[in-house]
Every structure is written in C-alpha cells, then in structure tokens.
Amino acid sequence: MKNLFYPLFLFAFSVSLLSGCATFEIAHFSMLTTKNVDLSQPSEKVGSKVIGKDKRIWFIIPFGLPRIDNAVNDALKNGNGDFMTDIDVEHRVFSIPLIYYRVWYEVKGNLWRIKPVSGNAP
Known about the structure:
The termini are far apart. The chain has one domain (20-114). The chain has 2 helices and 4 strands, in the order αββαββ. The model has no long low-confidence stretch (mean pLDDT 88). It is elongated and about 75 Å long. The chain has a 4-stranded antiparallel β-sheet with strand order 1-3-4-2. The chain has helices at residues 2-18, 68-79, and strands at residues 20-32, 43-59, 83-96, 100-114. The chain has 122 residues and is α+β, with helices and mostly antiparallel strands. 24% of the residues lie in helices and 48% in strands.
C-alpha cells in the first residue's frame, strides 16, 4: 500500500501545481440587451446583481467557445427581464493544461422589465 501512496501523492501534487484559474474583466456596459425593446415605455427594476453565464468545457479537444450574447440571454431568462444596466462582463478560465479547460463568460448587472401597457389608459 505504501508503494502506491507516493506515486499517487506525487501525481495529485503535480496536477494541483499545474492547474490554475483566471478571471479577466473585459467590459463594462451602461445598458445591454439581446431583445428588441421599446425603451420609451416605462420600466421597472426586477433585480440587482443578476448573473448570466455561458460555459464551455474542453476535454483534450475544444468543444466550442462561450459567447457573451448567450450569457446575456441567460441573465435575462433567469430574472425574467428585458434589458440590463450597469453590466460587468468577465471572462473566466479554469484549466489543467493539455487535459481539461473550463471557460466561460459571466455577465452581472441590474435587470429591468418593460411594464405591460394596460388597454384602459386614458
């Protein structure tokens, strides 16, 4: 049993030294949406610091790249909103080089919804 412990420990230690993660803030937007919205209509704030993500995992070979618009759509869907304000966009990476990569975009901001127009307006 002792003969197996040292190689396994050495392997686990090596992997932990080689693995890494990084976060890059790549953009800040005042307002952002992927929908067609009429901004002349009244709106209401439905959430603060709402987060949307689009992730991709690479296991030895890449399986595509994440997209910012998918992360925005995820945030709009999660909070049932129409547009976002005060948005930070981050690119995040976790990797074990040459074996495993997890890359994603994360958008975080305030979520707004267009108020429904009532048919009985004067």
